[in-house]
Predict the 3D structure of the following.
Amino acid sequence: MNIGVPKETAEHERRVALTPEVGGRLVKAGLTVLVERGAGEAASFGDPAYRAAGVTVAATAAEVFGQSDCVLKVQPPSIAEVGLCSEGAALVAVFQPSAARDAVSRLAARNVTAFSLALLPRLTRAQPLDVLSSQATVAGYKAVLLAATSTGRFFPMLVTAAGTLPPARVLVLGAGVAGLQAIATARRLGAVVSAFDVRPAVKEQVESLGARFLAMEISEQAETAGGYAKELSEETHRRELAFIAQSVKDADIVITTAAIPGKRAPTLITAAAVDGMKPGSVIVDLAVETGGNCELAQPGRDVIRNGVAILGPLNLASTLPCHASQMYARNISSFLLHIVKDGALRLDFEDAIVRDTCVTYAGEVRKL
Ligand code: NAD
């Protein structure tokens, strides 16, 4: 079975779906792996490293798509890439089908079996395949570094001959995978960290990282059976906004990561709350791609309001391409080995991992 890895074509995307190490493992597992020339370059994986691992380097994307039974990508396929897919081949990437309707219907029309790892169920056995978690880990880490380079303050407390400087006060809103990594990173840099989340189960995890959990009384059930946050009632959300407006006044840095699966991100910091913050404070809004947690955040832009910087970075995982690709490659190869048996695709639709992630199959769109 031929596995193909084209060079990512989306703007600013520096990751690659397979690293030489993971590609080599697939070769050892009996698969043939074909990588487009230069596919790993932006992530510091040169063609010689792929060749040394037993991977074949092809000159063009057309060759990779044309010769592959299964194509592995990071970003959703472009319309041009769908056109290069062989009829009946498979493709694995990360995308919301509803945001890629045209590509999805064309994939079905070409009889491509397409999977999106954005739809992977959060089951314990699916953890090694979980690209959302691995890439959120990168984003949480990088958000803190962005904040550290944007603020005019040190993160750690410094006692120097020029005086004593207090540590930065970091507030993390939303303590899921990205938020917990942001807390850990800010702590490592020496900041005093506090965090807030609507899921009460998070308190212990926050405290185990050496941060303070800000408690607000929430009388309704804010967590689904699956462990995700639910949308709050209007009244509770109103109280949450007031609680956060009070909390951000003391913060030098605020990292926001709050999300509700399948919905617009909840607003947590209003423009009025930003006006209550100290000049020189920095907000990094990791939810900006799904609507933003800060009312003033703009996708891909830095906004300054009364001396407060509001950063809305896009695709942070791509800015740490070496390790982000390494984690991604391990996730996607685990998924591949889950659906491939004896050198061919074997799909068991009774299995939630296959059922939930399969977007197109046998000429039909299964998820939109
Ligand atoms: P997410 O990206 O959906 O949301 C990020 C955080 O925002 C969550 O902690 C959520 O509670 C919080 N949030 C939502 N609305 C909020 C609001 N109004 N105010 C404050 N915070 C709000 O979450 P995630 O990082 O994907 O993780 C969600 C859960 O899933 C966690 O319990 C995580 O441990 C679990 N998980 C399980 C697996 C697995 O078993 N395979 C994998 C990944 C995550």
User: Anything to note?
Assistant: DSSP finds twelve helices and 19 strands in the chain.
